[in-house]
Amino acid sequence: MSSKILMVCLGNICRSPLAEGIMRAKLSKDFIVDSAGTGGWHAGELPDKRSISTAKNRGLDITSQRARQFKISDFNTFDYIYVMDNSNYKDVMALAPNEEVKSKVKLILNELFPNENVDVPDPYYGGQDGFENVFNMLNEACDVIAGKLKR
Ligand code: 4NP
Asked: Which residues contact 86 (CB under 8 A, 6 or more apart)?
């Protein structure tokens, strides 16, 4: 059975657009992959130029993505909600309407480092290096997720 996966960060312009693009490239078209930000300041915008170029260098085009804010109905729409850092986790969990949907929310790097609660660092205020680092982390985590979903 296919699944619906949502990637969540703060602005939905740096990390989660990369996570969405990477995850989608590893799964068949039967899966639905989307991303959102806990904040709405960048709604409607393209991914950050540095995310676009990092993805492009690795063969992924993420320019059809537009930022949007996470909404309560996402808890019902999606089967898995992967958040990028502990702050996103806290913000998303605070919006959860019931206990059942809370179990859908996971820190994405716990797929690589179980129970360690490691953040995908926010690359917004850094240079291109930070984006390459984020891409590599997300690529490994999405390999693990894709492996589980295809089983
Ligand atoms: P993201 O990065 O959460 O990975 O999209 C950020 C983008 C923008 C801002 C913060 C983080 N901002 O404060 O505008």
From this structure: 107, 117, 119
